[in-house]
Amino acid sequence: MIFSYLKSISPLDGRYNKITKGLRQIFSEYGFIKYRIMIEIFWLKYLSKIPEIPEISLDDDSNDILNNIIKNFNLNDANQIKNIEKYTNHDLKAIILFLEKKIKKIKNSKKIIGFIHFSCTSEDINNLAYALMLKKAKEKYILIYWKKIIKKMDYMAYKYRKNVILSRTHGQPATPSTIGKEIANFSYRLKRQMEQLKKIEILGKFNGAVGCYNAHVFAYPDLNWEKINRYFVESLNITWNPYTTQIEPHDYISEFLLCMFRFNTILIDFNRDIWGYISLKYFIQKINFRETGSSTMPHKVNPIDFENSEGNLGISNALIQHFSSKLPISRWQRDLSDSTVLRNLGSIISYSIISYHFNLIGINKIKVYKKNLLKDLKKNWEILLEPIQITMKKMGIKNSYEKVKNLFRGKKVNYKILKKFIDNLKISDLEKYKLYNLTPFNYLGLSINLAKKINLYKYKF
Length: 461
Description:
Fumarase C, Chain B, domain 1
């Protein structure tokens, strides 16, 4: 029967398959198998270069055969391994048997076969495979999407730096800002998380059954196995972890995912704010006349991209919470509970990537609706009571805040009411002149400048 994505259990490979298809090469069962084969072959080749291990040597032809196993690895190879696993009931042992069969083409293959998986435990291979998988996902997907989102926000911050907005604290009218400044707030927060993710080291272990190099030292007691294994791990551009049990303790994965969690949480905050601004008609969305907003209400243009992004971020973050608390814990030298959890790493990354995708679509659909921005500002002159009471304090009028509060709290005011109040203040003509010329549209502090220079804070942390 031909498989259809319509029969997928998860929307990752179903509804959203076009967005996540690139990640399949990394986080699928196929991808995990390929990365483990790479580690096994890299280790075999690495051992062959150690003069103190004369039992294994590889000529150019042998190296070509090994390289081609990786280069030409395909779905048929993966299926062969899965068939072997049916009777081994051990996924890594199936890979070893597959490699033994492939390596028989090499001269002196009997000696070489003995060094496949030499002194390794399964987790030596698995942890490095996951490290490479996360490294690739970080560099080729996560950071690229993060940069795109931040770049869009920086552009919006500059573009809308002069568009005045009525702020809302506790949902109530408050001191004005600009659209650009409010977007810049999010950009700055996201940049901090991006810089932190870049600095998180991806760790790897390669020290045997319980992290003590027992088999290594027993076989070749005169070799400096700490140095050898450290250089091997570092040759993969992974940071060596010298102290582990059977497993690399996954602390770095927790750090990695929690950084994603913070980025995602900030993006949820952004999605909700934009959703609210669309509801207030501070933003309007571009209309695609081929789309339908509601099955019964023809007028609807819903902010579905921001809602979609928020929902997928929530799923990703829920998984991250379990991963980050579960993975660093292992009974004694190891238990298997981390293994089944780690196989879902791709789900976390995929749900996040889907959310980033829809966030960018949503951002590209919106533009500021100046008319409504001005309309709300015109209705809320009471926001100027802040600079009035500050001026009164500056000029030495006692109980300035209380006087203003007692007169105006909870009341609507307009320019005439405020002018009459200012007329009766015992302050200098210069200060009165400044207050007379103050409006909800120009009481902006440094908001325009802050929005304008957000690019200066690009990656300086």
